[in-house]
Amino acid sequence: MSLSPEESEILADDLNFDSDVDAVTPAGWFDPRDGLRLVQTLLGTVSQDPDAFPGEDTLLTELTELEAVLSAAAQAGARFRLSVAY
């Protein structure tokens, strides 16, 4: 996970701690094939034991959608990064 300096400051303010913005790693971009392997592993894990995951239907739907996006990115030779809104 990586944050921009701005994201780091916002998160630090929200969680009430000091952030050393100069020490923050810049946001990174990743190979979609790496993300795709992770998403496919998660899909398999949730599918094998759905009762272990509250809201498994929603989780499976979102992972399947992410799998499609990452597959398209891999085919296009693009990179990816996930952003999370706090």
Describe this structure in words.
This protein has 86 residues and is an all-alpha fold. The protein folds into 2 domains: 30 residues, no CATH class; 47 residues, no CATH class. It has 3 helices and no strands. The longest helix is centred in the last third of the chain and has 21 residues. The relative contact order is 0.17.
Concise summary:
The protein is mostly helical and 86 residues long. The chain has 3 helices and no strands.
Keywords:
86 residues, mainly alpha, 2 domains, 3 helices, flat
Helices and strands, with pairings:
Blueprint: H1 5-15, H2 32-48, H3 56-76
Helix pairs in contact: 2-3
The tally of beta strands, per DSSP, is: 0
Average pLDDT: 85
What is the 3D shape? Answer: flat
Q: How far apart are the first and last residues' alpha carbons, in Å?
A: 14 Å
Helix fraction?
55-70%
State the helix count.
3
Question: What order do the helices and strands follow?
Answer: HHH
Reported for the largest beta sheet, the result is: none
Radius of gyration: 16 Å
> From the helix content, strand content and strand pairing, which structural class follows?
mainly alpha
Spans with pLDDT under 50 lasting ≥5 residues? none
Number of domains: 2
Q: What percent of residues are in strands?
A: under 5%
